[in-house]
Amino acid sequence: MIVILKHGVQQEKMEGLVNWLKNQGLGVHISEGSFQTVLGLIGDTSAVDMDLIGSLGIVDSVKRVSDPFKCCNRKFHPADTVVQVGDVKIGSGNFCMIAGPCSVESEEQIVEIALAVKKAGAQMLRGGAFKPRTSPYEFQGLKATGLDLLRVARKVSGLPIVTEIMAAKDLPRFEDVDVRQVGPRTTQNFDLPRGRGRLRKPILLKRGLANTLKELLMSAEYIMAGGNEQVILCERGIRTFDDYTRNTLDLAAVPMLRELTHLPIIVDPSHATGLARLVRPMALAGAACGADGLIIEVHNDPMHALCDGAQSLRPEEYASLAEDVRRIREVVAG
Amino acid sequence: MIVILKHGVQQEKMEGLVNWLKNQGLGVHISEGSFQTVLGLIGDTSAVDMDLIGSLGIVDSVKRVSDPFKCCNRKFHPADTVVQVGDVKIGSGNFCMIAGPCSVESEEQIVEIALAVKKAGAQMLRGGAFKPRTSPYEFQGLKATGLDLLRVARKVSGLPIVTEIMAAKDLPRFEDVDVRQVGPRTTQNFDLPRGRGRLRKPILLKRGLANTLKELLMSAEYIMAGGNEQVILCERGIRTFDDYTRNTLDLAAVPMLRELTHLPIIVDPSHATGLARLVRPMALAGAACGADGLIIEVHNDPMHALCDGAQSLRPEEYASLAEDVRRIREVVAG
Amino acid sequence: MIVILKHGVQQEKMEGLVNWLKNQGLGVHISEGSFQTVLGLIGDTSAVDMDLIGSLGIVDSVKRVSDPFKCCNRKFHPADTVVQVGDVKIGSGNFCMIAGPCSVESEEQIVEIALAVKKAGAQMLRGGAFKPRTSPYEFQGLKATGLDLLRVARKVSGLPIVTEIMAAKDLPRFEDVDVRQVGPRTTQNFDLPRGRGRLRKPILLKRGLANTLKELLMSAEYIMAGGNEQVILCERGIRTFDDYTRNTLDLAAVPMLRELTHLPIIVDPSHATGLARLVRPMALAGAACGADGLIIEVHNDPMHALCDGAQSLRPEEYASLAEDVRRIREVVAG
Amino acid sequence: MIVILKHGVQQEKMEGLVNWLKNQGLGVHISEGSFQTVLGLIGDTSAVDMDLIGSLGIVDSVKRVSDPFKCCNRKFHPADTVVQVGDVKIGSGNFCMIAGPCSVESEEQIVEIALAVKKAGAQMLRGGAFKPRTSPYEFQGLKATGLDLLRVARKVSGLPIVTEIMAAKDLPRFEDVDVRQVGPRTTQNFDLPRGRGRLRKPILLKRGLANTLKELLMSAEYIMAGGNEQVILCERGIRTFDDYTRNTLDLAAVPMLRELTHLPIIVDPSHATGLARLVRPMALAGAACGADGLIIEVHNDPMHALCDGAQSLRPEEYASLAEDVRRIREVVAG
């Protein structure tokens, strides 16, 4: 960590800061320039409160030289992580297609979609049972019943299931869920007991609307520091001033995360854009920039079918897309 | 709700949509213009999925005419809500000063600060016990011990206490906390049993970094629909491209929220800016634009004292600020 | 245009607004709902000041039903525009590769790069002569000399040239420039004389850092309303809170603009990311989501070569990328 | 400037970079840490291209230690600048009220408003003659005629006039305009001849929607490096995800700019919010956080009067606001 002091700082104030840093067990290397003095902190700075130091009156700015994330950092684990879900692998050249409806609605619906997306080449089934909603008056999902219907669809189709968990108290219900999806803040609220096998099931960690890549990686770090290294990262759009799509899909995050971490990275073009007609081009773009997989909404609902539908594709549109994704992958993996 | 169809939509697709809407119990008023057709939906549209309709292939855009929030909506409750905490009132002309350290660190610290801010005119004591942190390696707060120390400080100073709760499982520990502070997503994860008196304690609801005002109000709606109408809203900065302060304090949110809701609105200049030297001007600005209170960090730590300190004010700086806030209030309250 | 009035508006205030609107030559259709009254404005509303009406005390919100852009609107010109530059075509299935250095530095440099990118398959040469810089102390480009060197490179390579014009006073110097690049604000400051052939040369219009798609299209509208229909749009990243890349490349803008306008749309992955190692994946993604072309920085500078270089690719990296772009195009154009 | 190299950089690549930097006349101080190597650049780094170095393959990040702005930097000019316009002073405790209509519409209008705002205590008259508009179909202002009407209003009222100039070609027409208002990008397109007295007239420099504070200061630097030190900065809202007000007024920019520069700083609550009913609270907040002045829209238009009007205040509202601003100033100036 580098601390850049303001121009003309008083000697005694600087010494006060240096002593305080040394008392925290850090070495301090002082370089005095003609305009500014720079302190280089030596030792384990991961617990140092950068914001606190940065806000001191004598400090101009602070810069981390080493990243605050360790478990998920490619510097320390150069080889790609491969997450395995049953026979399905994600990462390090293993591309994974995840598909299914926004919400689980009925046994007929989820089973029909599961079989359709399997036929089109999907390797996992997604579907919302517990739904985070902005409004308390909106449909909150079928909850436990939705989980049961996902289990039925898994049995019929053989596809592993991916679904969102919102609160720690629901953990027991999710024991046999193949991949638990979580938002980045949720990771901090979970009890993450080390060493218990049942929690070693893979986590699909979605980037928050206002998350920097570093913050997303720190959320992964919470899970990994708790003993679970099976983390899949998911880019799903950030909040910007832009108003034509629901969020702004930040695809450059894919190659950037590839550089920063060894974890697999997938893209969710359905939630990012909120528009079915943008799912195909953005899914192809996600594959082209090197993602390890795609999570896409597929429906079989006559209402959707009638009007070209929402952010979800029809099964036949998904099948055609999946074929083109394979061809793009051949160029990229080439 | 108004649904604007695309130019040149096929008659049968439009009829399909109209029938689907009618099947959901809504009246539909169709106005055909020369360029576009507009559907006016009549009835209770609060559960209608605006994103779903907006994403249909034949729909240009959707606009809510009535707000989706009810309990917190000034249209339905024109009179200001006054939240009462012991003898302290917030809202409808009752201005409230809340102060205290970022984290509770020791009995000596929290008691000393409590007495100092009380002397300066603060009416409530804040202090973090359970701390949400970006990094799993950073200090997570003294947790239950921190709560106990807050109780000691409350007893000594007589000030009600305000502190953050992060997870539903901690609710029993917070039963006697005077004001529970929560983030907007957290409100969705809580069990909000109707009719249980102990949950009727006031909530300080902080705006999320990426929350629109409507989203903040929908979070308040979650709490109020659960039976607790004692909600205080808090503007604490949003995430923008701007990089000089930690977040961008959005003070126009104060008069805008005043128009939209009857709930009290306070401002947190300490967390918004992250810089002690900006707390005073932004606190005065918050009072000037009509906030119902200010929550401000105050410390007594020699490290902070040494270097003018972080985002926290020294007790004597706080006392001087509190005096000027009172004078600004006289101008504003007329 | 639809004007949604606030709940409980006084009859006489509403009538005042309706009369004022009628005096502007508009028809007004009034629908009174149980909660709100909605005015539908009939006639040419393109000159109506939406912000003014929206800010009136009795108005809840205003919504355009018809788009304010006409010349560039696909609704009125369904067929794709093809921009032609010498023998090179852009749009409607004609994909165009533009490449060259950030700045023109010397005859040797620009000629060498021109020949290299031509060999790799580029159809146009880019290079900065007049450079917009944040700082007055930074290199502002070779200006008129830079233009002359571009002309030399054009003669030697046969490639048409693309370069930025910043001020109206420089127009005479740019008469024989094949494609003039402009920023969106600049288009408002130009004199756009109608009917003069020399101004009918193609314009490459770059999206501003804070431009919505509608604003970008309104800038195109300025040029087209001035008589020049040869406009190429360019997505080059927007400003967000994200801090790993210079800007956030908003690739969903490509299919979205495709829907809104008939103009060709290209992508600039070099300026958007600012990092050479992200240019390849983002260029492939741009091709995959349906762009009509790519503008990419290529250098031959030993400093860049030494260190893998800046946001520019080496000629051999560009050649390899160009080949893969062709293969992606085959999948997409299917 | 500090250059932080990536972990495990090859010795010869590092030496290549060091030699290249030395060839540019810079001293290089190398500190090798256990994880990373840091280069400290010594000498005049203001012309060094930080983005170029930051994007090199072997570089982790780059940080300026000294600011790239000099003329407007408080470090080098600790005393506040006072800009003088006739008898009116702005800065260093001199508070200035600027008011007038959005657009100049007629002699009657501008004269009536000029006299009304003068009576209410305004010291300068604003009014748009050349208007930047998003749409080519919207009213572009009365242009030269508008300037003439402003001159009439100046003569009648005695108030100096402030109005926007958009293009360098209009400079001759603006010779006798007391304060020329410009956007930040415009400053780069002007010819800024050194040493010509007529250009030494004060400039009101508005922050761009997507400008960081550093970028705003670099725009001021362009003007000052051209020989004109009479610059007034203006905060007028930034573009964020927030959608209730037109822009997000970033009031913390006021005390932050105060620290960074000696130039006066004013606030424009009218354009920032776009809503007349927010102008009063945000103007008071601007005064409370230490601005040197306020620029506010005032109208006398019956349409506005009818409906409480747009982003403009009525003269009597402005008079009441001006009185409260004076009282807030007494508290702040203490």
Describe this structure in words.
- The first copy, chain A, folds into two domains: 62 residues, Alpha-Beta Plaits (2-Layer Sandwich), CATH 3.30.70; 251 residues, TIM Barrel, CATH 3.20.20.70.
- The two termini of chain A are 40 Å apart.
- In chain A, the strands form three sheets. In chain A, strands 7-8-9-10-11-12-13-14 form an eight-stranded parallel β-barrel, surrounded by five helices. A four-stranded antiparallel sheet of chain A has the order 2-3-1-4. In chain A, strands 5-6 form a two-stranded antiparallel sheet.
- In chain A, strand 12, helix 7 and strand 13 form a beta-alpha-beta unit.
- The first copy, chain A, is α/β, with parallel strands linked by helices.
- Helix content of chain A is 34%, strand content 18%.
- Chain A is built from eleven helices and 14 strands.
- Chains in contact: A-B, A-C, A-D, B-C, B-D, C-D.
